[in-house]
Amino acid sequence: MTRRPAARTMPRPSQAEYEALSEFRYLIRCFLEFSQDAARKAGLAPAQHQALLAIRGFPAGHAVSVGELAERLRIRHHSAVELVDRLFTAGLVTRASDEQDHRRVLVRLTALAEDHLAALSSAHLDELSRLEPSLKKILAIKKRK
User: Fold this and answer.
1) Residue 22 belongs to a domain with what CATH number?
2) Backbone angles phi, psi at 91, to 5 degrees
């Protein structure tokens, strides 16, 4: 008979904590659904919108490598290459070899991408403002010790 290792004893979550976690996951799903719909209405695939935001969200002046984009989007490198190819074809990004390391491809947004992203980001910030009271309530749940 095999013995199970002793489980680390942690206090069970309270009903309020279960409810807060459930509500948080629900709000995340609602926000993601909103985001996907908004991207499609703007003529972008949701993955394209996410990539544009990831690129724009890097510190100012920092060109983004395909590898960094893959990490930021939590996708495989070859998937990021395919995504960048589609963005390039759509006129949303430029790409160039890194002058310091020619193996790296650096990606920058075009003016068209900046316009799409500004409109989408404003709508997303409005949606977050709408969700803010619910998020604050969830985050106010007393932290467990």
Assistant:
1) 1.10.10.10
2) 75, 25
Q: What is the pLDDT of residues 58-104, one digit of tens each?
A: 987 688 999 999 999 999 999 999 999 999 999 999 999 989 888 99
Cα distances (Å, whole numbers) of residue 34 to 13, 39, 71: 30, 9, 24
Domain carrying residue 131: 15-139
The rounded distance, in Å, linking the Cα atoms of 8 and 5 is 9
105 assigned to some structural domain: yes
- The count of structural domains within the chain is 1
CA-to-CA separations, 60 to 18, 67, 80, 93, in angstroms, rounded:
39, 18, 21, 16
pTM reported for the whole predicted model: 0.86
